[in-house]
UniProtKB/TrEMBL annotation, chain B:
Coiled coil: none annotated. The lineage of its organism: Eukaryota, Fungi, Dikarya, Ascomycota, Pezizomycotina. This is Ribosome biogenesis protein YTM1. Component of the NOP7 complex, composed of ERB1, NOP7 and YTM1. Within the NOP7 complex ERB1 appears to interact directly with NOP7 and YTM1. The NOP7 complex also associates with the 66S pre-ribosome. GO terms for biological process: maturation of 5.8S rRNA from tricistronic rRNA transcript (SSU-rRNA, 5.8S rRNA, LSU-rRNA); maturation of LSU-rRNA from tricistronic rRNA transcript (SSU-rRNA, 5.8S rRNA, LSU-rRNA). Component of the NOP7 complex, which is required for maturation of the 25S and 5.8S ribosomal RNAs and formation of the 60S ribosome. InterPro entries: NLE, WD40/YVTN_repeat-like_dom_sf, WD40_PAC1, WD40_repeat_CS, WD40_repeat_dom_sf, WD40_rpt, WDR12/Ytm1. SUPFAM superfamilies: WD40 repeat-like. The keyword Repeat applies. It comes from Ascodesmis nigricans. One of its GO terms (cellular component) is preribosome, large subunit precursor. One of its GO terms (molecular function) is ribonucleoprotein complex binding.
Length: 378, 438
């Protein structure tokens, strides 16, 4: 004789969970064609975007002023990611099978010099390696070619160009900024390539392909790599070189995922409209399935500056913002509350919002749209 | 007792902050169907000024916009209540005067102090311009290698500019000279964009707030300044193109830095009473008070939101702070004040990025916002929203609003600059009574 309603946990009202983004604050206009990717620099001052027009652009966050831009390629820029180190100003951008490491000329001379040192140090290391490994044997072709860009005058601020075999769709930095991984979904056993900046060397961590790789992310604090194929998120212990766990979100086609800053929770977005929260301490199955989007989910993102927020972006043109509280008490499960549907991007040729990222400190959210704009929401 | 609305009466007390227009505050009976106009007539009758002064009435932080009857009903009062009405001179809406066109976004405006106002504008094309009130450029300051984000007069014949190239430049302005504007010095040391500047000519000090989270303290007298720190001299730029001769200015370092914020400093000002004390606001949500003699933080209070602008209402001992969360909060900066915020002014629909107090009404201020408007506020009626909204002149209502970046209210009126590449000047006409006095 118990009212089943009374057994449901009472969710707090969104008003009690403020602040969270509710409206467009800034529109970044300038790209011709889709904005594919965006990234906020680790100090939270500059927004970088990459688009189908082959350009990367850097913007003042609040005013929306484009302060710098560069045409990298005739192909789309599919991913941009700032190196997560506050003392340097290094932007990684992928276009076609090239990864460009860029020092945009917007930083102080000290920052610029340090950035160039970090990027150029490996040119010496690579030369040493090459000379000591020639012993008559036919050398195996390296997984990636590191070079200074050929067209130096045009790509003056590109310090390093790394070329792999297949189109790069995604970039992930290790938190210390020494390693970064690229994902080329068509690359099979070459899909994931890990690049070591200090030595200008690249390696392929997986000998066999276990499906089409969509994304990879490094664990926020431990030597662990998350690899998402269309169906699964596999968790590899990098120190022991073993597969430690496989998450089974139950999605037909994973588009994106993100790792909670605490390291024990993962959100997965899928082209089949589902947003899945995994608590890895509970199960390899999702803790919650959130079906709020009407079209494919393209990007999911946790706030990583101490606010219990996450968001998902979709081809339905919306960004959805959620409260996601992870408790220090292991017995208490995460609290998830839908907060707000952000509408503003125009669906363009069936594509909506392609990438999202939170500001490193504030509850400001950035979105990249197929409508040719990026937006700041607060 | 006759209870028909037309004849019912209510006791009111008329009070004001302005001594020269004060009437006896003892309660008097007035018809309860009176609205603003009728009440204004009553006060004018009691005051008998040489010419009528239109008044507005404030109850509980809001302007009375209904009859007293409705107010009593809406607030659950009875006709026996005594209602205290604060009367204020009714403000007259601003009038558009003129716009001065630029080649790029206008990030900052500053009006020359003294009897001959000239408008200084800083723009994203890296050029600061001095304009007369007829809209003629009478001098240009070119030397910054990137956009200017702040520009302020330091005196009647000198000003300072700063912005995206991380340096400040000081300039002299000599009227009637062919080379009216000369760069005096370049101040270097900030490691990120300079967002805001404050000047104090009597103390010979300049403060600069930067995205590097520090506030630079500089002297207008270059003899006081140390050489630039060695690591700020551009290593690479030497190998790049040789800088244009106009860019070459002797470099100096800061007297020191105010360190304590941990996000970009978006607003800085000297306290109105004491040029050795400064206030600053930051994206880090705090308002900080600094002792400029010892370069130490004296006070810090944390608000709910990133702060983007600050101004003082000196007679009220209040600070107004504009936020990215679209509102303006009022704070009492005195150490004894316990409450974090005393009132909130709501109405803007985007970030509030500049604030300026009225030059002649201690209760009024003006704000500039990324929502494309400049708004005039009276803090006595904080709950009523803004008094007036100034739109950008000539804007196409079909295209999205263009951001306003800076505003200053002084004897020339309300001067603002923005993304529409224009300085806009709107006059705030004095109220009738004051016109009679002039
Ligand atoms: Mg992302």
């Amino acid at each position: 004789n118990i009212d089943p309603e009374s057994l449901l946990p009472k969710l707090p009202s969104p008003q009690d969970l403020r602040p969270f983004p509710t409206t467009t604050a800034t529109v970044y206009r300038g790209h011709e064609g889709r904005v594919r990717a965006l990234s906020v620099d680790p100090n939270g001052i500059w927004l970088a975007t990459g688009g189908d027009d082959g350009t990367v652009r850097v913007w003042e966050i609040l005013t929306g002023r484009e302060v710098w831009g560069l045409k990298l390629a005739d192909e789309p820029v599919n991913s941009v990611k700032w190196r997560p180190v506050k003392e340097t100003g290094i932007l990684a951008a992928a276009a076609g099978d090239d990864l460009f490491l860029i020092t945009p000329p917007i930083f102080s001379p000290q920052t610029e010099e340090l950035s160039r040192q970090v990027l150029e140090h490996g040119f010496g290391a690579a030369a040493v390696t090459a000379s000591t490994t020639t012993n008559g044997e036919p050398k195996k072709e390296p997984p990636a070619k590191w070079a200074r860009p050929i067209t130096t005058s045009h790509l003056a601020h590109v310090t390093v160009q790394i070329t792999v075999r297949h189109t790069i769709k995604h970039i992930a930095w290790h938190r210390r900024g020494d390693y970064l991984a690229t994902v080329s979904p068509e690359g099979q056993n070459r899909a994931v390539c890990i690049h070591h900046l200090p030595r200008h060397s690249s390696q392929l961590p997986f000998r066999k392909s276990k499906g089409i790789v969509q994304r990879v992310e490094f664990h926020p604090s431990r030597p662990i790599l998350f690899v998402a194929t269309q169906r699964y998120v596999r968790i590899y212990d990098l120190a022991a070189s073993t597969l430690s766990k496989t998450l089974m979100p139950g999605a037909r086609w994973i588009s994106s995922f993100d790792v909670h800053p605490g390291g024990d929770n993962v959100i997965v977005g899928s082209y089949d409209k589902r947003l899945l929260w995994h608590d890895m301490e509970l199960s390899t199955k999702p803790y919650r399935t959130l079906r709020y989007h009407e079209k494919a989910i393209r990007s999911v993102s946790y706030h990583k500056g101490g606010r219990p927020l996450f968001a998902s972006a979709s081809d339905d043109g919306t960004v959805q913002v959620f409260h996601g509280m992870v408790y220090a008490d292991m017995l208490e499960n995460p609290l998830l509350v839908p907060l707000k549907v952000l509408k503003g991007h125009k669906v363009t040729k069936a594509l909506g919002v392609l990438d999202i990222e939170w500001h490193p400190k504030e509850c400001w959210l950035f979105s990249a749209g197929a409508d040719g704009t990026a937006r700041l929401w607060n | 007792m006759d209870t028909t609305p037309s004849t019912s009466q209510v006791q009111v007390k008329f009070v004001t902050h302005e001594a020269e227009i004060a009437v006896n505050p003892a309660p008097i009976l007035v018809p309860s169907n009176l609205k603003r106009f009728g009440l204004s007539q009553v006060v004018n009758h009691l005051l008998s000024p040489t010419s009528p002064i239109p008044f507005d009435f404030v109850i509980d932080g809001s302007f009375l916009r209904t009859s007293l009857d409705s107010y009593i009903a809406d607030n659950g009062l009875t006709s026996e209540s005594i209602i205290t009405l604060e009367y204020v001179r009714a403000a007259v809406p601003p009038k558009y005067l003129s716009s001065f066109e630029h080649d790029d976004w206008v990030s900052s405006v500053s009006v020359r102090p003294g009897s001959e106002p000239l408008i200084l504008s800083g723009a994203y094309d890296g050029i600061a311009r001095v304009w007369n009130l007829s809209g003629e450029v009478i001098g240009q300051a070119a030397g910054h290698t990137a956009g200017i984000k702040s520009s302020r007069w330091t005196d009647t014949n000198s000003f300072v500019t700063a912005g995206l190239d991380r340096s400040l430049r000081t300039w002299t302005y000599t009227p009637d000279d062919a080379e009216a504007i000369q760069c005096v010095a370049e101040y270097v040391g900030h490691t990120s964009t300079v967002e805001c500047i404050a000047t104090n000519s009597s103390a010979q000090r300049i403060l600069s707030g930067s995205a590097d989270a520090n506030i630079g303290v500089w002297s207008t007298s270059i003899n006081e300044l140390p050489p630039p720190p060695a690591d700020t001299v551009p290593i690479r730029s030497k190998r790049r193109k040789v800088s244009k001769s106009t860019n070459a200015a002797k470099q100096y370092g800061a007297l020191g830095y105010l360190r304590g914020h941990d996000s970009p400093v978006s607003g800085v000002m000297f306290t109105p009473q004491d040029s050795t004390v400064a206030y600053s606001v930051s994206w880090d949500h705090t308002i900080k008070t600094w002792d400029l003699t010892t370069l130490t933080q004296v006070d810090s209070r944390t608000t709910q939101h990133p702060l983007l602008s600050i101004c003082a209402l000196p007679q009220l001992s209040q600070l107004a702070c504009g936020s990215s969360a679209r509102h303006i909060t009022l704070h009492d900066p005195r150490a004894s004040a316990s409450s974090v915020s005393t009132a909130t002014l709501r109405g803007h629909t985007n970030a509030v990025v500049a604030l300026s107090p009225s030059p002649d009404n201690q209760f009024q201020l003006v704000s500039a916002s990324h929502d494309g408007t400049v708004r005039v506020w009276d803090v006595r009626a904080a709950h009523s929203g803004n008094l007036f909204t100034i739109q950008r002149q000539g804007r196409d209502p079909k295209i999205p609003a263009t951001k306003v970046f800076d505003v200053e209210w002084n004897s020339c009126g309300i001067v603002s600059g923005g993304e529409d590449k224009k300085i806009q000047i709107d006059s705030m006409p004095a109220v009738e009574g004051e016109q009679e006095m002039l």
